[in-house]
Amino acid sequence: MILSIESSCDDSSIAITKIEDNRLIFHKKISQEKEHACYGGVVPELASRLHAIDLPNILEETKPYLNQLKAVAVTNQPGLGVTLLEGIAMAKTIAVTKNIPLLAVHHLKGHIYSLFIEKEQKLPLLVLLISGGHTQIIRVESLEKMTILATSIDDSVGESFDKTAKMMNLGYPGGPIIEQLALEGDEERFGFPVPLRNSKLIAFSLSGLKNAVRLAIESLGGAEGMSHQDKCDIAASFQKAVKLHLLQKSKKVFSQEKIKDFAIVGGASANLYIREAYEKLCKEFGKTMHTAPLAYCSDNAAMIGRYAVEAYKKELFTDPYKVDIVSTKKHQSGAEL
User: Fold this and answer.
1) pLDDT in tens, 270-301
2) What does the H/E/C string look like for the chain?
C-alpha cells in the first residue's frame, strides 16, 4: 500500500491506496473552511498551524495499515509553502523511519488522476483543470508527458468566483455560494464582457470580468445596498460570462486536437452549470466527457495516492533527505506540466 499526504492549501488529508488494484483502503480529509471564512480567504500561517494539528490526528487512524506500506507520497508543488512543509515533514519522517521510498507528487497531476480513483487510468485525454489557483487545458499523453495547451494569464476560475463572492460579502469559499445564488438569478440582466472574445490568443483571463462585476456592484450601492435578487442576478450573469469564456477558448483547442476523451478536474469542476455546458460541447465535437466524483474534485489525498501508484510502478522515487518544496512558477502554453 501507499500512504499519501495532501497539505497544499487548507485541506489536511491522508489516504492509503492498494498498489495491486488501486483500491482506496483509507481516506480522510479535514477542511479548514470555517476557520478561514471570517478572513474571506486562506490565511497561510493559520492553515499551517491547523495542518500541524490535523495531519498527526489523521495519521493516528492509519496505524492498522502502517506495516503494509511500500511507499509514502506527498504533494510538494504547487501550493502554499508553509502548508506544503507540514506534509513534506511528515512524509520524510515516515519514509526514513520505515525505510520505504518517497514519491513527490505535483498537485495538478494529482487532480488529473482524481479521474482514476479506484479505476484503471485511461490515456490519452484532454483535461480542463479549473481550481482556486489554476485554469489550464492539458494534453495528457502518459504519466510523464503532460503538455499545457492553454493557461490563465491572471486570475483562475476558482479565484474569480471567490473574489466575486467576497465583493458581495457572501462568505468563503465563494464557488458553491455563487453557483447556488445563480440558480435564482437572471443571467441576462448584466451584460458582462466575455474575456478575450475578439482575441485569437488561446488563453484564459478573468481579471477584466472581475472588474466589470466590481463596477456593477458599486452601481447598486455596494454589498450593503444590494437586494438578494441583485446578488442572484450578479452571480448568474458572472457565471454565464465565465462559462462562455471557457467554452470559446476550449473550442479552439478542440478543433486542433484529435484526442476523443476529455475531462474536467479541480475544485471548480464541481460546478454543475459548467459541467452541463461542456457535456454539450463534447457532443458537438464528438468527444467523450469524463469527470471525477464530486467528493474528489477539491484537494484530497486520494488523488495524490492514485497518481503515486503509477509513479511507484515506474520507480519515480525522490531521496527523502532531498525532497523539498518546488517553487511555484508560471507555466506557459506549450510547457510540460
Assistant:
1) 999 999 999 999 999 999 999 999 999 999 99
2) CEEEEECCCCEEEEEEECCCCCCEEEEEEEECHHHHHCCCCCCHHHHHHHHHHHHHHHHHCCHHHHHHCCEEEEEEECCCHHHHHHHHHHHHHHHHHHCCCEEEEEHHHHHHHHHHCCCCCCCCEEEEEECCCCEEEEEECCCCCEEEEEEECCCCHHHHHHHHHHHCCCCCCHHHHHHHHHCCCCCCCCCCCCCCCCCCCCCECCHHHHHHHHHHHHHCCHHHHCCHHHHHHHHHHHHHHHHHHHHHHHHHHHHHCCCCEEEEECHHHHCHHHHHHHHHHHHHHCCEEEECCHHHCCCCHHHHHHHHHHHHHCCCCECCCCCCCCCCCCCCCCCEC
